[in-house]
């Protein structure tokens, strides 16, 4: 929600992608979030992923709910249409937008208050339907914009800035997304761009409901000792099962991976994900295994990150509804209106 | 009880069937209504049903009306009492001199009857039990057997009923012949054992013409198909669910690509009404024509999004099939009780466009028009149906469409327009002075025309702003836009009395047929009234002038709080004393008898009392 214009000039030597765009062409307005906010790192990762994938910025629709996280679509892809909708209702708005035009890329940005509390139902049902989207939750365990109340993803026993101890069980959106049938499920950390950028890129290329939970510390209200969503805590407890590269014909998106076995995953659209395994036993095609792995590690206080599950044979809501290939918003009266002859027949059948 | 001669009437009476829901009676009863129509005699049937699937009482009322009065009449001339649970109430409902038709298999004590009605017993259970062994068949054919007996009693042409059965079971020979057999079982028994016909009779006429017999919900859904709706998101709620059901079945027949077989529509059953309207708004934002259908409780849930649609200026079409509120209210009873809730839905200053169809033909037309209006005005358009129009078969003029008609997609700036030299795109810029800005669809142009849609205040270029003057400028433009809407929505229709009169009546929606009939009754009693049927909000200027032209104007509506009257008073600055509320709100459809009675009472008071005393 910035009113500060961002200067457009840039170094002439900035690298360009296949479309001739620089990184700057994927930026938006200047962020008005707090200095050091994890959300700004996620914004930077989205910009990076879209640049690397050579996406035409205007072919992305970025949709959000209400809250700090939901403000961020103003800060990336300035040439895309954005929709800062209603608290907790991003998933339904995105679903409708997707139904209207299947040809755009849909990026849903939400927060833990937006998706795990007021919009828990919409989160669940958009995933169930397999809407073709990248659904990112910028998860800080706290309501930032209203000054530090616990959100539903706050861990039991974690301490608020005011010193209150959370006694409620946390909602684990990743576990729920797996259970609901999301065909791409990942978790990452806003402070780990090398892991996050390729995850976002792979999610964008995935056909179906791709969900990424990004732990994103709130520097203003949830970055203190006793918080389980602080930079320090997440760094100490981050248990990455894999890191990945998205191979698009260009050079791999990141090279900063730890050594380990490589697993190649071919996606529907012909793209390929190269998974660098860190945990040799982790199988990202095993939904039930992933759920159990998550639960076991959560019980030990570990935050499992990486690409946790992907179904390379996934499909989406448009396949389920068997809609025409042309976007519904391009159909004209001649395509849609059955005309008087058909109406005369209907009238005749009603006498 | 006095000795009463039986009612004698040709083509003008009311038959009511009292049944248990889930017993299969609905299709037999509907066939009864349709076969009278096929005699060329108009009928007006109404389902009175509980919020339940099986076992509770349900009634089906058929008003036979050669004069074409399609409103509910009130009173019952013949009761087909098939439900022991409601027996006493049903017997009490029969007009003096009326008829009772019942299953006489089991003897009933005399105290269970009335002396002032004609009692017609047919041993339906005995006949079915001796003919059928399967319990389900016994149940279903019992309905057809009473239809057969009614056919004899009312002097209906059995060939017409046979033809209808033939159409219904076309291609299912076994069902067809067994239904015809059951029909004759009942008819023959009646002819042999009863005095046929009775005083109530159906005689062939030619009063139906080319009219069709359709439920308002189905007509509205067809209007959405013709109006180019491609996205429908909905959540089940009585009495609106059949809109989505009908849209689905119409689309299956009319909206599949002939080559690929793929769907040119998307229907999503939302997880609730919030998701349904969210999907509609997302789809409309992205350039598709989208709608939802709901009822009062759904409107309550949708209001936050409706405010977003108003303020961020996103088209949406909401079909509200009204039922009796508040809260869960009476889910299967009719009212016009969401006028205020819809006109001013959501927090903050909002106003919304409402359309009030009177019958299925208008439901079809207004539904199609709603999509043009929503895209032209970039806001929510409510199609205000109610259970009476929506869920009953109504005799209606045929649905019409003009093949030359194009959709009005409103002010949408294309990529070519954005590239025109000197073109300035501001999402909330009032270029034409009508309060309506231009919008762009997402994905239109690589570098121009994108904007950030939000429910927060912003300037004319869609940039966030909480500056007072910027906010006020936008709110004033929204008022200008609403004024523009006034001349786009369907205008009120006025019909003047035979002689000049100081009195007028305003009415809308499903009250129309009862009102038309009431005018005749009132005229016969010497009361002259000019009438104005309001068909939309914002109100056209003719509403205020109609009120100005009369000393008193009755406002007839089906709610407790005179909601339309309040809206007129509020929006037009009318002195409330000049608008006399005539209110019917018990959940049954308003009748001509009620309207005529209430207006005549008031008129009689006016005659004997000086005006200033009435005011006090």
What does the model show?
The complex is a heterodimer of chains A (351) and B (616). Chain A has 351 residues and is of the alpha/beta class. In chain A, strand 7, helix 7 and strand 8 form a beta-alpha-beta unit. Chain A is globular. About 3% of the residues of chain A have low confidence. Chain B is of the alpha/beta class. In chain B, the strands form five sheets. In chain B, strands 11-10-12-13-15-14-21 form a seven-stranded mixed β-sheet, with helices on both faces. A six-stranded mixed β-sheet of chain B has the order 3-4-2-5-6-7. In chain B, strands 18-20-19-22-23 form a five-stranded mixed β-sheet, sandwiched between helices. In chain B, strand 10, helix 8 and strand 11 form a beta-alpha-beta unit. Strand 2 of chain A pairs parallel with strand 17 of chain B, so a sheet runs across the interface.
Helix content of chain A: 25-40%
Tally of separate helices of chain A:
12
Strand order of the largest sheet of chain B: 11-10-12-13-15-14-21
Main sheet: strand order of chain A: 2-1-3-4-8-7-13-9
- Unreliable stretches of chain A: 249-257
Q: Give the rounded overall mean pLDDT of chain B.
A: 95
Instruction: Give the percentage of residues in beta strands of chain B.
Output: 15-25%
Q: Would you summarize the structure shown here?
A:
The complex is a heterodimer of chains A (351) and B (616). Chain A is an alpha/beta fold. Chain A has twelve helices and 13 strands.
Task: Give a quick set of tags describing it.
heterodimer; A: 351 residues; alpha/beta; three-stranded antiparallel sheet; 12 helices; 31% helix; globular; B: 616 residues; 20 helices; 39% helix
Set out the fold topology.
The complex is a heterodimer of chains A (351) and B (616).
Chain A: H1 38-52, E1 60-64, H2 68-71, E2 81-84, H3 90-100, E3 105-111, H4 112-118, H5 120-129, E4 133-139, E5 142-143, E6 149-150, H6 173-180, E7 184-189, H7 193-205, E8 209-215, H8 231-237, E9 238-240, E10 242-247, E11 262-266, E12 272-277, H9 287-299, E13 303-310, H10 317-321, H11 333-336, H12 339-349
Parallel strand pairs in A: 1-2, 1-3, 3-4, 4-8, 7-8, 9-13
Antiparallel strand pairs in A: 5-6, 7-13, 10-12, 11-12
Helix pairs in contact in A: 1-7, 3-5, 4-5
Chain B: E1 9-10, E2 12-20, H1 25-37, E3 43-48, E4 57-65, E5 76-81, H2 87-93, E6 94-103, E7 118-122, H3 124-131, H4 135-153, H5 158-168, H6 173-193, E8 200-201, E9 212-215, H7 216-226, E10 231-234, H8 241-254, E11 266-269, H9 273-285, E12 290-294, H10 296-312, E13 316-322, H11 339-343, E14 353-355, H12 360-377, E15 380-386, H13 387-390, E16 393-396, H14 415-419, E17 452-454, H15 468-486, E18 493-495, E19 503-508, H16 512-524, E20 530-534, E21 536-537, H17 541-548, E22 552-557, H18 563-572, E23 579-583, H19 592-608, H20 611-615
Parallel strand pairs in B: 1-8, 2-5, 5-6, 6-7, 10-11, 10-12, 12-13, 13-15, 14-15, 19-20, 19-22, 22-23
Antiparallel strand pairs in B: 2-4, 3-4, 9-16, 14-21, 18-20
Helix pairs in contact in B: 1-4, 1-5, 3-4, 4-6, 5-6, 7-8, 7-12, 9-10, 16-19
């Amino acid at each position: 929600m910035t009113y500060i214009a961002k200067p457009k000039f840039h170094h002439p030597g900035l690298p360009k992608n296949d479309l001739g765009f620089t990184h700057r062409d994927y930026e938006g307005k200047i962020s008005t979030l707090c200095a050091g906010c994890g959300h700004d790192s996620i914004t930077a990762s989205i910009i990076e992923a879209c640049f690397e994938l050579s996406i035409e910025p205007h072919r992305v629709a970025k949709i959000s709910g209400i809250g700090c996280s939901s403000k961020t679509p103003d800060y990336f892809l300035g040439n895309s249409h954005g929709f800062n909708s209603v608290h907790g209702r991003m998933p339904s708005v995105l679903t409708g937008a997707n139904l209207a035009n299947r040809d755009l890329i849909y990026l849903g940005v939400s927060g833990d208050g937006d998706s795990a509390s007021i919009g828990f139902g919409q989160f669940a049902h958009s995933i169930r339907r397999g809407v073709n989207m990248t659904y990112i939750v910028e998860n800080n365990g706290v309501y930032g914009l209203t000054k530090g109340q616990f959100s539903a993803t706050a861990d039991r026993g974690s301490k608020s800035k005011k010193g209150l101890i959370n006694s409620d069980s946390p909602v684990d959106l990743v576990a729920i997304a797996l259970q609901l049938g999301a065909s791409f499920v990942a978790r990452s950390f806003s402070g780990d761009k090398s892991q996050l950028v390729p995850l976002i890129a792979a999610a964008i290329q995935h056909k179906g409901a791709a969900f990424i939970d990004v732990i994103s510390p709130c520097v203003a209200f949830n970055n203190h000792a006793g918080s389980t969503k602080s930079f320090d805590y997440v760094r100490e407890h981050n248990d990455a099962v894999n890191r990945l590269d998205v191979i698009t014909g260009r050079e791999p998106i990141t090279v900063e991976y730890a050594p380990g076995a490589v697993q190649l995953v071919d996606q529907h659209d012909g793209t390929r994900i190269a998974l660098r395994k860190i945990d040799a036993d982790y199988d990202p095609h095993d939904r039930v295994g992933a759920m159990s792995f998550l639960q076991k590690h959560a019980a030990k206080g570990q935050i499992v990150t990486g690409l946790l599950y992907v179904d390379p044979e996934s499909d989406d809501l448009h396949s389920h509804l068997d809609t025409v290939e042309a976007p519904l918003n391009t159909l004209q009266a001649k395509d849609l209106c059955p005309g008087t002859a058909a109406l005369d027949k209907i009238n005749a059948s009603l006498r | 009880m006095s000795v009463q001669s039986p009612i004698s009437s040709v083509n003008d009476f009311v038959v009511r069937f009292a049944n248990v829901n889930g017993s299969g009676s609905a299709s037999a009863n509907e066939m009864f209504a349709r076969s009278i129509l096929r005699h060329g005699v108009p009928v007006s049937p109404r389902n009175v049903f509980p919020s339940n699937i099986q076992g509770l009482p349900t009634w089906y009322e058929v008003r036979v009306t050669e004069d074409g009065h399609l409103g509910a009449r009130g009173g019952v001339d013949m009761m087909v009492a098939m439900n022991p649970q409601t027996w006493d109430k049903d017997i009490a409902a029969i007009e003096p001199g009326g008829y009772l038709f019942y299953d006489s298999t089991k003897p009933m004590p005399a105290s269970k009857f009335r002396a002032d009605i004609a009692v017609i017993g047919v041993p339906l259970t005995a006949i079915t039990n001796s003919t059928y062994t399967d319990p389900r068949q016994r149940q279903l054919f019992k309905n057809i057997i009473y239809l057969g007996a009614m056919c004899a009693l009312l002097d209906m042409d059995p060939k017409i009923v046979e033809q209808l059965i033939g159409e219904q079971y076309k291609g299912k020979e076994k069902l067809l012949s067994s239904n015809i057999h059951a029909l004759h079982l009942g008819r023959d028994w009646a002819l042999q054992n009863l005095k046929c016909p009775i005083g109530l009779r159906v005689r062939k006429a030619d009063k139906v013409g080319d009219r069709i017999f359709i439920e308002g919900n189905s007509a509205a859904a067809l209007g959405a198909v013709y109006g180019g709706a491609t996205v429908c998101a909905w959540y089940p709620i009585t009495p609106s669910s059949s809109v989505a059901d009908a849209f689905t079945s119409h689309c299956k027949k009319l909206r599949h690509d002939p080559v690929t077989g793929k769907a040119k529509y998307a229907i999503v059953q939302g997880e609730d009404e919030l998701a349904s309207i969210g999907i509609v708004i997302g789809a409309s934002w992205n350039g598709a024509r989208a709608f939802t259908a709901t009822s009062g409780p759904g409107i309550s849930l949708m209001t936050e999004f409706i405010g977003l649609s108003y303020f961020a200026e996103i088209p949406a079409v909401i079909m509200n099939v009204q039922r009796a509120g508040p809260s869960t209210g009476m889910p299967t009873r009719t009212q016009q009780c969401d006028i205020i809730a819809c006109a001013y839905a959501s927090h903050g200053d909002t106003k919304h466009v409402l359309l009030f169809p009177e019958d299925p033909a208008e439901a079809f037309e207004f539904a199609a028009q709603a999509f043009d209006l929503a895209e032209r005005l970039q806001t929510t358009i409510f199609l205000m149906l109610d259970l009476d129009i929506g869920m009953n078969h109504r005799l209606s003029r045929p649905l019409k469409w003009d093949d030359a008609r194009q959709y009005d997609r409103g002010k949408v700036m294309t990529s070519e327009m954005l590239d025109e030299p000197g073109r300035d795109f501001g999402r909330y810029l009032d270029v034409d002075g009508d309060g309506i800005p231009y919008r762009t669809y997402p994905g239109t142009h690589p570098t121009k025309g994108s904007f950030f849609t939000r429910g927060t205040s912003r300037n004319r270029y869609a940039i966030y702003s909480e500056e007072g003057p910027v906010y006020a400028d936008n709110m004033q433009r929204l008022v200008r836009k609403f004024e523009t809407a006034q001349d786009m929505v369907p205008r009120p229709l006025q019909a003047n009395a035979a002689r000049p009169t100081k009195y007028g009546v305003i009415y809308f929606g499903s009250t129309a047929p009862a009102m038309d009939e009431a005018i005749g009754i009132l005229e016969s009693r010497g009361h002259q009234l000019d009438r104005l049927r309001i068909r939309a909000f914002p109100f056209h200027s003719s509403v205020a002038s109609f009120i100005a032209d009369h000393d008193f104007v009755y406002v007839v509506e089906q709610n407790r709080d005179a909601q339309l009257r309040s809206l007129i008073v509020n929006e037009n600055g009318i002195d409330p004393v000049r608008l006399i509320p005539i209110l019917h709100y018990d959940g049954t459809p308003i009748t001509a008898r009620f309207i005529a009675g209430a207006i005549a009472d008031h008129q009689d008071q006016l005659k004997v009392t000086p005006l200033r005393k009435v005011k006090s």
